[in-house]
Amino acid sequence: MLFLCAMVGLAGFVDAAAGGGGLIALPAYMAVGLPMHYVYGCNKLSSAVGTTFSTARFFKNGALELKVGLAAAAASFLGSALASQVVLLLPDSSLKLILLVMLPVAAGIILTRRDLAGPDRPALRDGAGKWWKAAAIGFFIGGYDGLIGPGTGTFAILAFCVLMGYDLRSASGNAKLLNLASNYASVITMVTAGKVFYAVALPAAVFGIVGHLLGSGMALKKGAKFIRPMMLCVLALLLADLVAELFA
Fold first, then answer.
1. Three-state SS at 195
2. By three-state DSSP, how is residue 72 classified?
3. Of 129, 92, 108, 32, nearest to 246 (Cα)?
4. Which structural domain, as residue segments, surrounds residue 181?
């Protein structure tokens, strides 16, 4: 149990800064021996609780544009709902190949776009187009979450930064609100279905809160110098996990 709590805390730290905490938390829950539905249920609960605290911290520090985050969150529900229907029609291998193409592209953008580590660029979100961009990000990120899942927060941060000109701190804050909405939607589903083992999920959630607070604190304090390398680490971890599955 101590190992699980420590891993969920680490997952919260990573997730609060750069997304992708599920890559750490899910294997930890599996190692405890929980059935897969309970693994997902417990992970969603601890993730949602932790993300609540990190989202609040970003908002308190002015690193989150509430209306933009809410617009993206609303659109993500539609994208996720549609993707959940599409995923039933696609073979698992096709989804993994899609991700295999996306990961190097995302890593290349992070490595080559020096403006990602620069200041906020509000000119990219002037006028009414701002809301269409936010909705488009939410729709496609929600679709990705429904189709594939891992690394959703990382891709959301990248989208807010590249397409809307937010600095990495604010992009991370907006991504938290998007993730928060989808997390609680999943939690409601899992709780209603009785797929949360509270004796495991609640203690882990406490450590997740600590991780999220520490991770969001580092992201707010260090900004791009901390978030950018963390995003690359998440993408590398996701790529390694994907390659291992493809060639297992």
1. coil
2. helix
3. 92
4. 2-246
**DSSP code of residue 62:** T
Q: What is the pLDDT of residue 114?
A: 66
Tokens of 142: 């929600």
pLDDT on residue 60:
93
Residue whose C-alpha is closest to residue 233's, from 5, 3, 36, 19? 19
- State the DSSP code for 118: S
pLDDT recorded at residue 118: 65
CB-based contacts of 26, cutoff 8 Å, min separation 6? 39, 40, 43
Q: What is the CA radius of gyration of the chain?
A: 17
CB neighbours (10 Å) of residue 89?
7
Q: For residue 45, how many other CB atoms are within 10 A of its CB?
A: 26
pLDDT at 53: 96
- Whole-structure pTM value: 0.83
C-alpha dist (Å) from residue 242 to 82, 100, 107, 234: 24, 7, 15, 12
Task: For residue 14, give the nearest of 225, 162, 229 by alpha carbon.
Answer: 229
In residues, how long is the chain?
248
* CA–CA separation, 158 and 167 (whole Å): 10
Question: What distance in Å separates the CA atoms of residue 22 and residue 15, rounded to the nearest whole number?
Answer: 8
Ranges of beta strands (E only) in the chain are none
The series of mean pLDDT values per 10 residues for the chain, 248 residues long, is 93 89 87 87 91 93 90 88 72 70 73 66 75 92 77 88 89 89 82 90 96 94 86 84 74
How many angstroms separate the CA atoms of 237 and 21, rounded?
A: 11
Decide if 154 contacts 20 (C-beta within 8 A).
Answer: yes
Tally the domains of the chain. Answer: 1
